[in-house]
Design goal:
By secondary structure, the chain is an all-alpha fold. It has one domain. The chain is built from 6 helices and no strands. The radius of gyration is 29 Å and the shape is elongated. The N and C termini lie far apart (about 80 Å).
């Protein structure tokens, strides 16, 4: 005869250790039931998760290098063509700037994806690997697990487009633009139709075909101002991927 509330099949009653959840916690607070820092299932899952995210950001890192290589290769080819013969007008650097700006925009877009996935890796390194290395369970604090899960469900960018452009300018493209500007001025001085002795003669040398001097000067000055302004602004507002001077850098000198 089966009694009400009693199962008809054998049940092994095993005492399971559970964590008492404080009644004052709201639904937005996550509570970890992980008893041991070295729980095999948890460590195995997080290790695979970390390895997968590392592989993902490495793929995006390679895509960043590809666009940089395109910008350098195209600039090198255009500069070589510009100085090969005198008949090549300096207007060719217009196309060089357009190509580099396009590569910078594409790379900034790729960098936003790279930075979004890199943020997950940094979260795992700071809140999972560091407590593992330090063997300190108390360091597992905060809502980092909740943040990682929310980002997995609804991925989002961590930086703006302007900041992404500024970071790539600061790291690589500012040097490419400087090289183009120097090559442009050198081309004008070397292959000008008339000798350049002062600023007015240099301004007249900017004229090429149906393109007036003021337009060339505007593009030249606008490029310098925009590149400098974006680089300086982002350098002051953002710390970048890695700090320039670590607190304990001296400890690593062997």
């Amino acid at each position: 005869m089966d009694y009400p509330g009693k199962p008809s099949y054998p049940v092994n009653l095993i005492a399971v250790a559970t964590e008492k959840i404080p009644s004052g916690l709201n639904e937005e607070t996550t509570v970890s039931l992980q008893r041991s820092l070295y729980d095999p299932g948890y460590v195995n899952a997080m290790s695979h998760f970390y390895r997968g995210e590392m592989g993902r950001i490495m793929v995006w890192r390679q895509r960043l290098d590809i666009t940089t290589n395109w910008a350098i290769t195209s600039s090198t080819a255009i500069i070589t063509i510009a100085f090969t013969t005198r008949e090549v007008p300096h207007i060719i650097f217009f196309f060089n700037l357009a190509i580099v700006w396009a590569m910078l925009w594409i790379e900034a877009r790729r960098y936003r994806f790279y930075d979004a996935f890199r943020a997950r890796v940094r979260m795992l390194e700071a809140h999972f690997l560091v407590p593992m290395v330090m063997e300190n369970r108390e360091m597992l604090q905060g809502e980092w697990k909740k943040l990682v899960c929310e980002d997995l469900i609804l991925p989002c960018f961590k930086i703006s487009k302007l900041e992404a452009v500024g970071r790539r300018l600061k790291r690589n493209y500012v040097f490419i633009f400087i090289l183009i500007m120097i090559a442009w001025v050198t081309k004008i001085f070397l292959h000008a139709n008339a000798p350049i002795d002062d600023v007015p003669s240099f301004y007249q040398a900017l004229h090429i075909g149906h393109i007036p001097s003021w337009l060339v000067a505007f593009v030249f000055a606008g490029t310098l101002v925009s590149v400098t302004a974006i680089t300086v602004y982002v350098s002051q507002k953002s710390s970048g991927e890695i700090s320039e001077f670590g607190t304990h850098r001296s400890l690593w000198r062997i």
